[in-house]
Amino acid sequence: MVILAIAVPVPLRKTFYYTHTKPLALGVRVEVVFASRALVGVVVDCMDLLADIALEQHGEPSKFKPIGTVLDDVPIFSQSWLSLLHWLANYYQHPIGEVIQTALPNALRKAQSSQPIPISTIALVPSLAALNIQGNDITQTVPFINLKRAQRQFALACYVAAKTQDEDVDGVAKDEIKQHFSTSLINNLIRKEVLIESHQYLRSGCWHDQKGVEHFANISGLPANVEQSIAITGICAQLNQFGCFLIEGITGSGKTEVYLQVINKVLQQRQQVLILVPEIGLTPQTVSRFESRFGIQVGVLHSGLTDKERLTVWHQARLNHIGIVIGTRSAIFTPLPELGMIIIDEEHDDSFKQQDGLRYHARDLAIMLAQKQGIPIVLGTATPVLETLHRAMTGKFQHFKLEQRAGDAAVAPVHLIDICQQPLQFGLAPATLDVMQTHLSQGNQVLLFINRRGYAPAVVCSSCGHVEDCVACDKPMTYHKAQSRMVCHQCLAHVIAPHQCGACGATDLITQGIGTEQLEQGLGELFPQYSTIRIDSDSMRGKHTLSNTIEAINQRQHQILLGTQILAKGHHFSHVTCVVIMDVDGALFSADFRAPEKLAQLITQISGRAGRADKPGETFLQTTQPGHPLLQDLVNNGYGHFARFALHEREQATLPPFTYQVVLRAEDEIPQRAIQLLEFARHLLTNMKNISTLGPMPCLIEKKQTRHRYMLIIQSPYRDLRQKVLDAIIDDYAHYANKSRIRWSIDVDNIDFN
Ligand code: ADP
Ligand code: ZN
User: Fold this and answer.
1) With a threshold of 0.70, does the pTM exceed it?
2) Does pLDDT of 49 surpass 70?
3) Nearest ligand to the C-alpha of residue 487?
4) Which of 27, 509, 511, 601 is deepest in the core (most CB within 10 A)?
5) Are residues 345 and 317 in the same domain?
6) CATH number, residue 720
7) What is the pLDDT of residue 304?
8) Count of domains in the chain?
9) Is the dihedral of CA 563, 565, 570, 572 positive or negative?
10) N- to C-terminal Cα distance for the chain?
């Protein structure tokens, strides 16, 4: 008999003890009964029941329940991952059971086997496969198919024949065939013994056995320029050891080319590579760039996959059947036994930080993982966050700069357009309309950025001034004209658009402000001779819509592109020569000290979407604050200069990265209750040396879904001290908070104050 310590997915900061008849490997999943519910837990410790220490610690063994089914033969987590998960739980002050749950693919959170799922594959029966049926008279080779009635059957047989011959494989995945032919047709030919179905586990053998490593040695990339060469040589000289590299390279400077060339070296060492990208940046084009360079299958992980698709990539990675995994935040948890390098593209992107549950930052976890594995990690961006830049400038990260645009692009200068006292049409100043007209009449494309979806951010009664607010959030609801709806962008609640004022009943409702929908309509009126395309999360629903639209834009089917954040990520539009940024002044006056940094990143990222050497781009920023020092610095000196100056300011103000913060949040329908809970925390922290607190005060999003939201900011100049202090108070605080039934969270290294 043994005692097992099991991490169970419950919000309690400890593991729970169960017994079993024989020892189990750590990292194995088991079913347990917890508070009369069946849950899936993971073994994190195993003690011989007779060992003194177990008896001493746990007393009478009969008080522990036995576990239920053991779900895995082989541990799901390696020892090093288990210890990393313990680190995560400690660092982010999150219950270990929930941390482990976060790291599991969805499918394995249930009591499901972790055996690889068999894949159904289809091939021609051997007697037919020997013949070349393509182009032959099918009635001779397959006499029982009546040609007149069976064109689809013939097409299917030819499809399978062509696929297996071209790709030199034994069969084609049934799921793939189903995209072109119906299941009944496939089954029909199986019955007629034309096709044969078999169930295979994942393709066996390592990814590098198929082509051999020489294959990678023979791939040549683009001839690197001097800056690229310095980065490539620098990183490649330090493989097989921990090292953090920052590539600070303007958009289009060839960062991806640097990644490709260093990845090649890693693949030649038979090691796997993990690439993390922002949520919106993961397009088929990104993936195909890696696949076509290396000629191997790339595992792709993003939020649009089904649990089954996700699990398949998880298995392939774990069995070393794929050499490269590209994914968004949670792909960091992919098991890669031969991991040789991690790359974080667009490291400044906020989507790497999880904003609920376990509030981890995938970049920071990736750095820990790299350190544990003794491998290099490469961060790339045009606009490093100040935390990263600071580490690079103090020598913790090695720093490479790419300041020239590679290939055929030139950097777009930024100009300010003063919109004070200007007659705006759909939010556009006369000067803006002029430059747009100039670029359009030269046959080029114009990109407009506006950070507001919908038709208008508010609907107001012109009789009494009443604003239609979300009842749960006390914030104006956005009018979406196409759907005749009012939507709360905070809690996503929606109602039918009203015809009458909710307060006085008058019918003269007017909209205030401009959203993408209205701007699209306006551009149609202002520039009727050009085609406008709107790109926001409303217009880009559906799997392939965004990539199809980008394709259409690059083929110049549209001249005016209008959109939100989605436009700021990853895509390069070489026919765009004019970028207009609207309505970002709010960030200049935000209470969040990171707002200027984020604004500077946004402006720089959007400007970077445009231009080629023969068609250099220019960016116009509409503002009511043309004299604002931040804008002046950014316009005249660029992000790099701005960021270095901003770092200096942070140091003066003793803000991160020169100090370390934690935000405790509490939400309740009764504000006083939330405040009280945070006061309790503040009380626990009083008179602690080198720990300061700010608050309790309202979060920047003050009310959401009927709950009032408050925060307490905790700050210390020492990371270790902050950690120690959190360790010391968390149990008391969690106990008190859970008892009071107030919603609360802890956010270590928070990136905002929402
Ligand atoms: P980034 O990732 O920094 O935005 P990319 O790697 O995508 O930049 O490069 C931008 C463009 O320049 C791409 O079309 C790429 O093929 C091209 N490019 C990159 N490096 C070179 C090079 N050394 N020589 C010629 N073209 C290059
Ligand atoms: Zn709401």
Assistant:
1) yes
2) no
3) 2
4) 601
5) yes
6) 3.30.70.360
7) 84
8) 5
9) positive
10) 50
